[in-house]
């Protein structure tokens, strides 16, 4: 899990820079979708945004800082065929 978080580090930083002044308890699924639309040209990047926000809220719910999970029900975008290794 530590490697996943290290790989996602630039994503949470970018989210914090753009949206860090907003109260997280008011974040809803429509807001997550609006953030992802900014990266509609890169579905993999949009999915990383959802993954980072989801990880943040998993932890917040676990420690009692959040009650609702805004990523539940959010559909991931298809990245296309690409290269598989």
TrEMBL record:
Alphabetical UniProt keywords: DNA-binding
Record InterPro entries: DNA_brk_join_enz (IPR011010), Integrase_recombinase_N (IPR010998)
Full protein name: Uncharacterized protein
